[in-house]
Design goal:
The protein has 114 residues and is mainly alpha-helical. Among the domains are: 42 residues, Arc Repressor Mutant; 29 residues. The protein has four helices and two strands; from the N terminus they run ββαααα. It has a two-stranded antiparallel sheet with strand order 1-2. The protein starts with a strand and ends in a 20-residue tail after the last helix.
């Protein structure tokens, strides 16, 4: 489960993550936190940040990330092409605001020209 938590300005939004761990691992975490003077939560956050940095440098992960990104781009292009085929718009015209021609109406919902 995760819940948004407010943080000081500029720190970003924190979310709660529940993780199940063994009693032995929790005891070790608590000892490390006690020895460092940090909370168990801070120790977990630091460990995750370190692990993510290490993972980002892994050549196998980098190759997979490149492949996943390419697949995302292919899917996005397919969806852009589908929208263009349906609505006759392309990337250049999709950002333009649609033209609207509001018609004035009478109280009964009929155009004023009738």
């Amino acid at each position: 489960m995760s819940e948004p938590t407010t943080t000081p300005a500029g720190a970003g939004q924190l979310r709660t993550l529940a993780v199940r761990i063994t009693e032995d691992l929790r005891a070790q975490l608590d000892i490390v936190a006690q020895l460092t003077g940090r909370s168990a939560t801070e120790e977990i956050r630091l460990a995750l940040e370190h692990w993510i940095e290490k993972t980002k440098a892994d050549p196998v992960i980098l190759k997979k990330a490149t492949q996943v990104r390419a697949e995302i781009e292919r899917k996005a292009q397919t969806e852009r092409d589908a929208i263009a085929a349906i609505f006759g718009v392309d990337d250049a015209t999709a950002d333009a605001e649609p033209e609207s021609s509001p018609r004035s109406t009478t109280r009964r919902g009929k155009p004023a020209s009738e």
